[in-house]
Specification:
Structural class: alpha+beta
Largest sheet: 8 strands, mixed
Oligomer: single chain
Strand content: 25-35%
Number of strands: 8
Shape: globular
Distance between the termini: 31 Å
Amino acid sequence: MAEKVDRVVVEKSERRMYLMSGDEVFRQYRVSLGASPSGHKRREGDEKTPEGRYLLDWRNPDSKYYRSIRVSYPNENDVQQAKENGHPPGGNIFIHGLPNGKGLLARTFEGQDWTDGCIAVNDNLAMWEIWSLVKPGTPIEIRP
C-alpha cells in the first residue's frame, strides 16, 4: 500500500474519524460516540468519549463488537483527575464496529450515540478497512 496511516483524528462535534497520512486525510468515516458525548470522560460510567491524545495500543479480533482497537485511555492525567474526584477513571475505550450479529441492523445505529464511551463505526465493512490500515501504536487525537 502506497499510503501509510500515521495517526487518527476524531472530531466529536462532527461525528467523524479521519485516518491521516502526513497532513492529508487518507480515509474518513462517520462515527457514533458515547451516549453522553459532550465533554471529556471523567469517570467510569459517565458514557463520555474521552478527549485528548492517546495511542491505539491493542487489537481485539474476538470482541463482542465487530473488531475493536483499544484507545490507551486512561493516561496518567486522567487517572490523577479521577482520583482527585474520588472516582475510578473507567477504561476499555475502543474503536469498534457494530455489535456482533447486528450488522443487518446498521441503519438503526446511524446518527445515534449509543456506546458507553467508545467510538463506533456503524458499518462493519468500513471497520474492516480501518482494522487493515491502522496498526498498533498509531497515535489518536480525540477532539471536542
